[in-house]
Amino acid sequence: MPEFQSPLVPVVVIDDATAAGPLADALVEGGLPIVEVTLRTAAGLEAIRRLSGREDIQVGAGTVLSVAELDQAVAAGAQFIVSPGTSPALLDRAAELGVWAIPGAVTASEVLQVLERGLNQIKFFPAAAAGGPPVIKALSGPFSAARFIPTGGIGPANLAEYLNLPSVAAVGGSWMVPRQAIAARDFGAIRGLVGEAAALAAQIRQGKEQ
Ligand code: 3PG
Q: Which of 39, 46, 124, 206 has the most CB within a 10 Å radius?
């Protein structure tokens, strides 16, 4: 499976696809050249379409709940597919298309279901509500191949608890891309938040490597 270009995956809810370009600029300039555009809004697919030609940012689709949505996201140019959960239908289709897939799992049985398919990147969602770092640590014992992307309830205050775990590939979150700021087209503020988040993640990862 491909790797993330960044230790953080900004999770975006976009209400107007014309904001996608300047939003991507803010992410690249701030130092997080990756985006998970959720299909929670009607503008999500069009935003992916608009960003799909760019080579300076990895563009994926999030909140993919059905095979139809998976197909639409791939057709729109999504490079990776994220789902909050795991289902045989989604896993079958992802395998059929050979697409980079990151299914959601928080229990041992769900993690096993993903690993059985030869996938090892797992969205651990909703991270905080599902028990947070202790649960990821516990699952990493039996499932040493699993690489988790915890998302949901993570922010600057608790980022290190997650990012310091060796089995965490990257952390997802929306704190650096607030929906209201995107809707208000306040890309300067977003670039600032992205820069702060990128700097914090780099500091945490460097600390870990020392
Ligand atoms: C997601 O879809 O990954 C989450 O809703 C993002 O969670 P957060 O808003 O708590 O960061």
A: 124
